[in-house]
């Protein structure tokens, strides 16, 4: 079944949400799904838009905002399965002029079959929502019939599905099978169907903050929370004692070792987790990114955590440092990538990325790595990393770079560099984490990192 691409009419009418419990949350989830499925916008961008003063999330209480995001994220994670299930209940796709009816259906099936919401609550709210949209209201009866059938017959259909094949684009699944083998590829795709836990990097006293926040300290030093909630309401947030950062994302900056008082260049610095890490370790950090908008967040978090860095807005490819010293002894380049290692956190990625995007990103990574090499001082260390599972953006980039740059050699990452995560050390001395690592503790993002040394 092809996903319909109707015009987003989620704001045509705004009846009092109190008339139908949960109506506001379903309206917001439909808006989020429309942004991703019909407009091709990232889910995070859609969330930011809908949280604005006139957005569908703005008037909701925190619980309903969280529920709306959960519905949308689940529908995106399970989009392939939901599409397959709907083919059993619809003779043909809904027409283009059906308003938000398709998004209502996807969200409702996610609720019924993957979130265990009571059928009467889902059906009632979703039919009521359809009636508020000038186009979807003509399909409210159909939605009612489909959702009632799905509540009765959907579980049996769901249990017979191949979730891995249905929810993972073929180009991604093929790539992972060729790179990691059939079993691991299937485990990765399965891991992507589960929401990722919340990890924190702390300025100090990881054990103390784990106890205060009812979390656990991971072997690499991150604090993993076992209970959810709004981040900005947690103890220590306003005082800047920690920041949100997946345990895998926190590893590349650690590979420099001791950086106290050292000059470090963080290329492509936004959203800033690694900049904060390096600053907290006592480094003199230059955080560079071409996006002024994204650097606002970096600056805000530096202020919140009472850490310092020289924040620079510039295109790295054309940038030259001020002053006489044009190189840095430590350079970190977290290159823009397909981000397939973060699908647990960003379930829109499989639906928005393609092989053509990958080819463009690889070209950009090559240029950034070459620029990073120019900015690395003789005898200095260059760390290249991406939050991607694709070998084109990791291992293959490094092999090609080393073949063309004899002044650099790999400084192998060792098991001592990654305590408790020894399986992430590759035979060639790079770091490769997978969502299947630490599975019993909740997994981790997929990341690649290589540590390179420039000759004196």
From TrEMBL:
<protein>
    <submittedName>
        <fullName>16S rRNA m(5)C 967 methyltransferase</fullName>
    </submittedName>
</protein>
<feature type="domain" description="SAM-dependent MTase RsmB/NOP-type">
    <location>
        <begin position="160"/>
        <end position="455"/>
    </location>
</feature>
<comment type="similarity">
    <text>Belongs to the class I-like SAM-binding methyltransferase superfamily. RsmB/NOP family.</text>
</comment>
<keyword id="KW-0949">S-adenosyl-L-methionine</keyword>
<dbReference type="GO" id="GO:0006355">
    <property type="term" value="P:regulation of DNA-templated transcription"/>
</dbReference>
<feature type="binding site">
    <location>
        <begin position="268"/>
        <end position="274"/>
    </location>
    <ligand>
        <name>S-adenosyl-L-methionine</name>
    </ligand>
</feature>
<dbReference type="InterPro" id="IPR049560">
    <property type="entry name" value="MeTrfase_RsmB-F_NOP2_cat"/>
</dbReference>
<dbReference type="Pfam" id="PF01029">
    <property type="entry name" value="NusB"/>
</dbReference>
<feature type="region of interest" description="Disordered">
    <location>
        <begin position="1"/>
        <end position="24"/>
    </location>
</feature>
<dbReference type="GO" id="GO:0001510">
    <property type="term" value="P:RNA methylation"/>
</dbReference>
<feature type="binding site">
    <location>
        <position position="334"/>
    </location>
    <ligand>
        <name>S-adenosyl-L-methionine</name>
    </ligand>
</feature>
<feature type="binding site">
    <location>
        <position position="289"/>
    </location>
    <ligand>
        <name>S-adenosyl-L-methionine</name>
    </ligand>
</feature>
<dbReference type="InterPro" id="IPR029063">
    <property type="entry name" value="SAM-dependent_MTases_sf"/>
</dbReference>
<dbReference type="GO" id="GO:0008173">
    <property type="term" value="F:RNA methyltransferase activity"/>
</dbReference>
<dbReference type="InterPro" id="IPR023267">
    <property type="entry name" value="RCMT"/>
</dbReference>
<feature type="active site" description="Nucleophile">
    <location>
        <position position="387"/>
    </location>
</feature>
<dbReference type="InterPro" id="IPR001678">
    <property type="entry name" value="MeTrfase_RsmB-F_NOP2_dom"/>
</dbReference>
<dbReference type="InterPro" id="IPR035926">
    <property type="entry name" value="NusB-like_sf"/>
</dbReference>
<dbReference type="GO" id="GO:0003723">
    <property type="term" value="F:RNA binding"/>
</dbReference>
<dbReference type="Pfam" id="PF01189">
    <property type="entry name" value="Methyltr_RsmB-F"/>
</dbReference>
<keyword id="KW-0808">Transferase</keyword>
<keyword id="KW-0489">Methyltransferase</keyword>
<keyword id="KW-0694">RNA-binding</keyword>
<dbReference type="InterPro" id="IPR006027">
    <property type="entry name" value="NusB_RsmB_TIM44"/>
</dbReference>
């Amino acid at each position: 079944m092809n996903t319909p691409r109707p015009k987003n009419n989620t704001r045509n009418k705004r009846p009092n949400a109190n008339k139908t419990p949960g109506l506001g949350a379903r309206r917001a989830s439909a808006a989020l799904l429309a942004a991703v499925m019909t407009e091709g916008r990232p889910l995070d961008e859609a969330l930011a838009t809908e949280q604005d003063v006139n957005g569908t999330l703005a008037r909701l209480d925190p619980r309903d905002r969280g529920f709306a995001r959960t519905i949308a994220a689940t529908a995106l994670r399970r989009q392939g399965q939901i599409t397959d299930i709907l083919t059993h209940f619809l003779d043909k796709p809904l027409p283009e002029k059906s308003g938000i009816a398709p998004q209502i259906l996807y969200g409702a099936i996610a609720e019924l079959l993957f979130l265990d919401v009571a059928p009467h609550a889902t059906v009632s709210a979703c039919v009521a929502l359809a009636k508020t949209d000038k186009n979807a209201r003509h399909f409210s009866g159909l939605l009612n019939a489909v959702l009632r059938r799905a509540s009765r017959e959907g579980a049996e259909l769901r249990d017979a599905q191949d979730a891995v094949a249905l929810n993972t684009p073929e180009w991604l699944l093929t790539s992972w099978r060729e790179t990691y083998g059939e079993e691991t590829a299937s485990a990765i795709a399965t891991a992507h169907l589960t929401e990722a836990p919340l990890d924190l990097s702390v300025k100090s006293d990881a054990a103390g903050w784990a106890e205060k926040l009812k979390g656990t300290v991971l072997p690499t030093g991150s604090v993993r929370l076992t209970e959810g909630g709004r981040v900005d309401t947690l103890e220590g947030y306003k005082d800047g004692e920690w920041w949100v950062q997946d345990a895998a994302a926190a590893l590349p900056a650690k590979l420099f070792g001791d950086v106290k008082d050292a000059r470090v260049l963080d290329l492509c610095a936004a959203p800033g987790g690694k900049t904060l890490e390096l600053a907290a370790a006592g480094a003199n950090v230059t955080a560079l990114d071409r996006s002024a908008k994204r650097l606002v967040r970096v600056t805000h978090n530096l202020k919140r955590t009472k850490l310092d860095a020289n924040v620079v807005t510039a295109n790295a490819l054309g940038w030259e440092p001020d002053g006489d010293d044009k190189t840095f002894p430590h350079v970190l380049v977290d290159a823009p990538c397909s981000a397939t290692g973060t699908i647990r956190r960003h379930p829109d990625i499989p639906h928005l990325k393609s092989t053509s995007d990958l080819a463009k990103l690889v070209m950009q990574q090559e240029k950034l790595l070459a620029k990073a090499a120019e900015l690395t001082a003789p005898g200095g260390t260059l760390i290249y990393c991406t939050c991607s599972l694709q070998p084109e953006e990791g291992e293959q980039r490094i092999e090609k770079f080393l073949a063309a740059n004899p002044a650099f050699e790999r400084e192998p990452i060792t098991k001592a560099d990654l305590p408790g995560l020894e399986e992430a050390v590759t035979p060639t001395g790079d770091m490769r984490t997978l969502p299947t690592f630490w599975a019993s503790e909740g997994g981790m993002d997929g990341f690649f990192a290589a540590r390179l040394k420039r000759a004196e």
